[in-house]
Amino acid sequence: MENADIGLIGLGTMGSNLSLNIAEKGHRIAVFNRTRSRTDDFMANAGELRDRIVPCYSIADLAAAIRPPRPVIVMVQAGKPVDEQIELLKPVLSEGDIIIDAGNANFHDTVRRFSELAGTGLTFIGMGVSGGEEGARHGPSIMVGGTRESHARVEDVLTAISAKYEGEPCCAWLGEGGAGHFVKTIHNGIEYADMQMIAEIYGVLRDGFGMEPKAIGDVFATWNKGRLNSYLIEITAKVLAADDPKTGKPVVEIILDRAGQKGTGRWSVIEAQTLGIPATAIEAAVAARVISGMKDERLAAEKVYGGPGRITSYGALIPDLELALFAGKIAAYAQGFAVMAGASKEFGWGLPLATIAKIWRAGCIIRSQFLGTLAAAFEESASAPNLLMAPAFIEMMKEAHPALRRVVARAMEAGLPMPALSSALAYFDGYRQGRGTSNLIQAQRDFFGAHGFERIDAEGAHHGPWGN
Ligand code: 6PG
To answer: Active-site residue among 191, 200, 271, 322?
Structure first.
């Protein structure tokens, strides 16, 4: 009976597609789902891959079906369900077996689970998987944490199922403990910023310029052939071109403007704040989703204040929009990678930033041409304190930031919300201002709280002549 190479629990969309991917790459996989009928349906739809899949109807059967040492992927809803599965697995697994959590876990939970399992003889891998349904089936980007040794035991299968970028697998071990899930969280934070900035430009084209969805889709389709080439721009063009079968209207017009979120964006911001690293574009993107949820309040406020106005004589602004989006993207990625660099230091992970950029070049949701440039920049300028100071990015940002400035200015004048792009610009402007204004903040702090300040002309802590 022990003939599967690996097991998987949770045949939801991601789990079933990952299982088919594993079977397709020649590995025998044992699968289990709490609801029996789901396992039966999955097997009925597995086609010829069925021969390499062992359906199991209990956790004990699943364990018995896998050749030891047993790797078991858990692909269930993040949070408590993962802990429940671990508890169920503990009695049926044995020394050396590996539990792999492939969901979008909070890395603190991963660290906790890892240490809770230490001493049981079982090991734990927290693994970020990106690429949605399609990626899971045909090649996701895989970010592995946990011990190097446990990764070595599953490396073959993970490499086989991962996306390939010009033949290179988009899968890597990134560091101990929660490193894989942390990197996946930041991937999602960047995804939030990317999506929000695209939506802001869509807002300018729709509300500022009064363009129809299909025409806007054409703009994105054109941009997808240039420097913005990416999966998110590609699907944006496709989404804007699609019609609703029920009404015949562009489908984007009948979708309620209220965005969902499951937590990874918010976790990115919390971790950035805890580490003391600004991630303002990601933060703005998370806040924009929250504001989007206040539909009724927004409708009421529009009645009171009026909504955004039109941008007239925008001809010259259209080419600017592409560059503005690019500049915003550079700033958002600079922030995301700075957070990873900070976490790497704090948790002693030694995160390989160039490798992370490389394994994001294919398979994941933020895959893009840009990530290739980013990987090269990290390889060439490993000592740059921020992506904004890597030579290749200095050139690109010098070209793009004036356009971001013009676009943000016109949008602000018209009352078009641009939280992520304007935060990206403010971050850039703050970063490049040699003499800032916090001398005043220091004076204020000293005035009301005697907190002291540094002088530009003498060492040590000083106080002002406030006379209070
Ligand atoms: C991915 C996606 C995936 C998921 C998002 C959606 O990398 O494949 O990021 O993980 O679809 O988590 O997240 P929200 O529901 O929070 O937008």
So the answer is: 191
